[in-house]
Amino acid sequence: MDNIKTKDLLKIKHLLGIKGMCREDLELILKTSASFKQILDTPNKKVAALKGITVVNMFFENSTRTKLSFEMAEKRLSADVVNFAASSSSLKKGETLIDTARNIEAMKIDMVVMRHSTPGAHKMLLDNLDSVIINAGDGAHEHPTQAILDLMTIDEKIPDLRGKRVTLVGDIIHSRVAMSNIHALQLYGAKVQLCGPATLIPKGIEKLGVEVTYDLEEAIKNSDVMNILRIQLERHVGPSFPSLREYHNFWGITNEKLSKAKNDILILHPGPMNRGVEIDDDVADGDHQVILEQVLNGVASRMAILYLLSANIGGIK
User: Fold this and answer.
1) Catalytic one among 5, 7, 93, 207?
2) Is residue 36 within a helix (H) or strand (E), and if so which, with residue range?
3) In the chain, N or C: fewer CB atoms in 10 Å?
4) What is the CATH number of domain 6-142+297-312?
5) Gap between the Cα atoms of 153 and 227, Å rounded
6) CB-CB contact of 125 with 96 (8 Å)
7) 235 is a catalytic site residue
8) What is the fold, at CATH topology level, of the domain defined by 144-295?
9) How far apart (Å, rounded) are the C-alpha atoms in residues 262 and 278?
10) Is 260 a catalytic residue?
11) How far is the C-alpha of 2 from the C-alpha of 28, rounded, in Å?
12) Domains 6-142+297-312 and 144-295 belong to one CATH topology
C-alpha cells in the first residue's frame, strides 16, 4: 500500500457524512479496511502509509472508543499525531473555532479529525481550511466512521444485505450513529427498521424510507441484525420515559426476548453500553454479539479512511 493508484481514489475529498456518498466509495473503503485488518493481525502492525503526514484530533465532546481508535489508526499508519485539548485551549479565552483551527493549520498540518456538539461544525472547517476534514461525530447529525465500521462488521457476517432487515433500537432521535447507519445500510439494499419509545423516534422519519415499530418483540422476530443504541440521557430535555427500569422492561435486549429471534440474528452496539438498561450482560457477552469485532474493525476502517483521503492532501483547493 505504498502508493494510491488513480483507479482507487475516492470520489469524496473529505468525510463529513454518509449522506450523499456513493456505494462505490463505501465499497472501496470496506475493501481497503479488510486489507488493513489483515495487517493488524500480523506481528508488525505498523505501515508507513502516512509517514510525514500530520493529523490533528480535535475532540470537543467526551470520547473513548472513537478517539482512541482514530489515534491508534493514525499511529499504525506512521502519521504524526497531535491531540488538541479543547479544555485547555484559547477557546476558553474567547477565541473562535475557526481562528483556533486556522492557527493550528498554520503549523503545517494535513488532516483534521473533529468531534463537535454542533451539527454542521465540520462544514465550517471545510469552508475555512485547506486540510482534509474527517467527521468523528457532530451533535445528533452524523457519525460516518461509526456507520462504516458497523457496515464492515455486518458485511463480514452477511455479505449480501439486499432484502435483509437491520433494526436500530433505542434513542434514535439523539443518535448520530442512527442517521449515518440509515444512509449506509440503504446504499447496500438493506431494509432499515427503527424501534423504541415513540418519544425517542423522530416524527416523520419514515420519509427517509425506514420502517418504524414500537414493539420490540415484533422487531426481534423480523430482524436479521439489531444495532442497539445507548440512551443518551445527557442530551434529553425533560423525561422521555418514566424510568430506566421501564425502558429496560419494554425495550431492553434480553436473552428471553432474543429467544424469539432468528437463530443467526446479529447483535451490534456502538458503545458505550449501559448494561441492564438497553442490553443485558448475557446478550452483551453472548453468542449473537459482535461488539468487540466492531472495536477492531473501527481501527481497520479508520486506517482505510485516513489512507484513502490522504490522496487529497495538497490538492483540495
Assistant:
1) 93
2) helix 23-40
3) C
4) 3.40.50.1370
5) 11
6) no
7) no
8) Rossmann fold (3.40.50)
9) 20
10) no
11) 17
12) yes
